[in-house]
Design a protein that fits this description.
about 325 residues; Kinesin; Arc Repressor Mutant, subunit A; flat; binds 2-acetamido-2-deoxy-beta-D-glucopyranose
């Protein structure tokens, strides 16, 4: 064969499920209680396998069992691409092993997976930690949002091209916290440009109460569910310093405004408006939530943990902080009456 492009290679990767069902092999089987349980194949025919697990013996379809790595390290691996088998039970076992060791972050290549610890872990986010991640190669240190932010920041500086970081996950996964960590690191690298005594980062963070008033609602599962996506743009000057920020919300679940089903509520802001101080109630011709068609389709009007009157004042205050003038706030209010 003539080598036209010496030194260049074209790699074609492929993968497939090898026969999982050989007698004596270790496999994962789906389980209604524990999601996945592992055991040894003790019987196998063309379609079905019998698996001896610790607590029970299960018969499963041969193509529904997945091989288990007998040499899986007890503390897991920090990058899923190092796993012997990249399938659902393997990924979940790895995340669980790391979570039990208080390691809430794991990479899959250059994707960072975060598991909500449901407790504060301040030792992970100090200035000393940011110093460590500053300029370190991606993957050299433990998985961390700072590493993602650092890599994006340096790419932006070195290549002069805008970068995007996508934070996604289900309700309660910790997207808001992760976003704050990313912004904290970018503010650390980009210096704090002061505007009227408040840093841009502070203003961005304090915009959260505003976005949550207009974009959070009670759903069946969550009394404070964010029903919107948020696009935060942080602008840097040619020196790599933060020069501004813009927050755009998009994909608000708009159907929720005019259609509410029973144990749910409309967006928090409507109930806050109905709990405004007396003179504003009169000025905007407001009243009890139960007198409005958009709110009285559901029987739920108040939430035990949410004081709408207090939240109304807090939201007005937050609007001021992020630079929405009183006139603009009143115009906003006008739209709702
Ligand atoms: C809901 O609000 C509408 C509009 O104000 C009103 O006509 C209706 O009687 C209310 N329904 C209930 C059950 O209160
Ligand atoms: C959600 O709000 C309802 C109504 O106030 C309350 O009964 C329930 O306990 C709240 N749930 C949580 C998890 O706070
Ligand atoms: C709703 O959740 C946000 C964070 O997602 C939090 O900042 C806010 O205080 C919560 N509000 C209530 C009323 O629980």
């Amino acid at each position: 064969m003539v080598e036209k492009f010496p030194g260049k290679h074209l790699l074609i990767g492929f993968s497939g499920i090898i026969s999982n069902a050989a007698l004596g092999s270790l496999v994962w089987v789906e389980d209604t209680d524990d999601a996945w349980i592992d055991g040894e194949v003790v019987e196998a025919n063309d379609d079905d396998v019998k698996v001896n697990c610790q607590t029970k013996t299960v018969v499963a379809k041969a193509n529904a069992v997945y091989p288990k790595d007998p040499e899986f390290p007890e503390l897991g691996v920090d990058d899923m691409t190092k796993l012997a088998y990249l399938h659902e039970p393997g990924v979940l076992l790895n995340l669980k092993a790391r979570y039990n060791a208080n390691e809430i972050y794991t990479y899959t290549g250059n994707i960072l997976i975060a598991v909500n610890p449901f407790k504060r872990l301040p030792h992970l986010y100090g200035n000393d930690i940011m110093e460590q991640y500053k300029g370190s190669d991606f993957g050299d240190l433990s998985p961390h949002p700072f590493a993602v932010a650092d890599s994006a920041y340096r790419k932006m500086i070195n290549e002069g091209v805008s970068q995007a970081i996508l934070v996604s996950g289900e309700s309660g996964a910790g997207k808001t916290e992760s976003t704050k960590m990313l912004m904290q690191y970018l503010a650390f690298m980009g210096g704090k440009a002061q505007t009227e005594g408040r840093s841009v980062e502070q203003q961005v963070l304090e915009s959260n109460p505003v976005l949550e008033a207009f974009g959070n609602a009670k759903t069946v599962k969550n009394n404070n569910s964010s029903r919107f996506g948020k696009f935060v743009e942080i602008q840097f000057n040619h020196m790599g310093r933060i020069s501004g920020a813009a927050i755009r919300t998009y994909l608000l679940e708009r159907s929720r405004v005019c259609q509410v089903s029973d144990p749910e509520r409309n967006y928090h802001c409507f109930y806050m408006l109905c709990a405004a101080p007396e003179q504003e109630i009169e000025r905007y011709k407001l009243g009890e939530p139960s007198t409005f068609h958009y709110l009285n389709q559901s029987n739920c009007y108040s939430l035990s943990a949410l004081d709408d009157a207090k939240e109304y004042l807090a939201t007005r205050k937050a609007m001021e902080v992020v630079g929405i003038s009183s006139e603009e706030q009143v115009r906003f209010g006008g739209h709702f009456t």
